[in-house]
Amino acid sequence: MKYDALPATDPEVFDILSGEATRESEGLELIPSENYASQAVLEALGTLMTNKYSEGTPGRRYYGGQTYTDQIESLAIERAKALFGCDHANVQPLSGAAANLVVFSSWLEIGDTVLAMDLSHGGHLTHGAPVTFAAKAYNFIRYKMKDVATGAIDYDDLEALALEHRPKIILAGFSAYPRELDYGRFARIAEKVGAMAMADMAHIAGLIAGKVLANPFDHGFHVMTTTTHKSLRGPRGAMVLSQGKVGNPLRAPGKTLENLPTLIDRAVFPGLQGGPHMNKIMAIAVALREAATPQFADYSRQILRNAKVLAETLMERGCQLITNGTDNHLMLIDTMGSFGKTGKEMQERLEAVGITLNKNAIPDDPLPPFKASGVRLGTPALTSRGLLEPHMERIAAWIAQVGKGEGDPDAIRREVRDLCLAHPIPSGPVERGN
Ligand code: DSN
Question: How far, in Å, from the CA of 228 to the mean position of ligand 1?
Fold first, then answer.
C-alpha cells in the first residue's frame, strides 16, 4: 500500500510500519489466530469513519450526524446475520474478551455458574481462568478432554457436571483445541439444565463461514461470539451473534432467551463500552462480504487441507501432536516430549529462522505459561498467501529440523525468506507515495 502523508509527518512511525511490513512479508506466520487482512479491509479501516461518535444502535443513537454510521453498521449487521444464520448481530465489541464479557453480563447475575473448557485443555483465558475479572464475578466449572490422545470429550461426564452444578451458561469454544465439538450434544445438555448454549468460535469463524466446519446455530445454540480477524480475515474486532426477537424487552421485559438480542445490545452499551469504532465496523462489513464469496469457501477448504498435511508431516518427522492430529486449522506440538525443549525455546529458535508461532500450555502442563511445554501453530495465514500442501511439507521439515537442532539456521532462514518472497502477503508492501 502507498502512504503519502505518514512518511513526511512522522518518519519514526513510518519506519516502524515498514519494519513490521518486512517482518510480515519475509517470514512465515503460523500463529493460528493471526491472518492477513486484504487491501480492501485495510483501506476501509484507515478512513475518516474513525472521526465519529455513535453510541447506541442504528436508528437509536445519542448523538446527531448518524446517517452514514447507521448505514454502515446496519450493513455489517445484515451481512453477519446472513453469513452465520442468526436473528441478531452486535458488531461493536472491541475484542473477543469484551464480546465474552458482554454475553456473561447480559445473562448472568454475579455469582452465577458457567460450565466451560479448562484453559490448559484448549479453552480460552476469558472462559473463566482465575486471573480474569469474569472469574472473580462468576463461578466457573471446567470440563476437560477425557482422552488427550484423541481429544475426545466425554459428553456423559459433561452432562453429569451440568446436572450437578446447574450452570446458567454452557460454553463451547476454544483457542487451542484441534478437534471438532459435538454442538448438538452441547445444546441438548444445555436444554436439559435450562442453560444458555454459548459458542466462542473466534478461531473458526472463517471455517464456519466457508461451511467447512459445523455451525453451532444449526445445532440449537442461542449465542455465538467471535473475533473478526482470525480465520475470518477481517480487522481486529469482535461480534456477538444471537437468536431471539430483536427489540423484544421493550414489549416483554425480562431475562428470557427471546430477549437475548436486546439484552446483548444493552450489555455492550451502556453496560460495558462507549462509542463504537466505526472505521473498524466499516472494515468488518468489507470482510463479511469477502467471506460470503465462493473464493472464501475455497480458501477455507484449503486451510483444512493444509492443516492435515502439516499435522501428518510433523508427526512423521517426530513431533508429538496433542490429540495426534487436527480436525481444524490448528495443532499443538508437545515440544518437551518431542525435543526436550520448552515452548518458549522452540518459539525463539523458530523466530530466528523466520517462522512465527506461539508457546502454549499442553493439557495439565507442569510448566508456567511463560515457558510452557508446547507450541501452537496453524494454517490460516499461510493459506492466505497461497501456500499449498507441498509447502506444508517443507515447513514441517524446517520445524522438525529446528526442534532436533539439525541443519544450518542461516540456510533455513534464507529458504524461508525465498518461499515468502515468492508468495507475497495479500496487501503487498508498504511504500512511500509522492
Ligand atoms: N489471542 C487469541 C489467540 O491467540 O487464540 C485469543 O484471544
Answer: 12
Measured CA distances, 113 to 6, 175, 272, 338 (Å) = 49, 21, 20, 38
Please say whether the beta carbons of 404 and 339 come within 8 A. Answer: yes
Distance 394 CA to ligand 1 centre (A): 26
Model's pTM, two decimal places?
A: 0.96
Which tens digit of pLDDT belongs to each residue from 204-257? 999 999 999 999 999 999 999 999 999 999 999 999 999 998 876 655 567 888
CATH classification (class only), 295-426: alpha beta
Q: What are the residue ranges of CATH 3.40.640.10 in the chain? A: 45-291
- Cα 182–153–346 angle (5° rounding)? 110
Q: Which is nearest to 141 in space by CA: 218, 157, 150, 296?
A: 157
pLDDT at 218: 98
Q: Please, where in the chain does CATH 3.90.1150.10 lie?
A: 295-426
Q: What is the number of H-type helices and E-type strands within the chain?
A: 17, 16
| 56-104 residue pLDDT tens | 999 999 999 999 999 999 999 999 999 999 999 999 999 999 999 999 9
CATH of the domain spanning 45-291: 3.40.640.10
Task: List, by residue number, the catalytic residues.
Answer: 53, 55, 200, 227, 230, 236
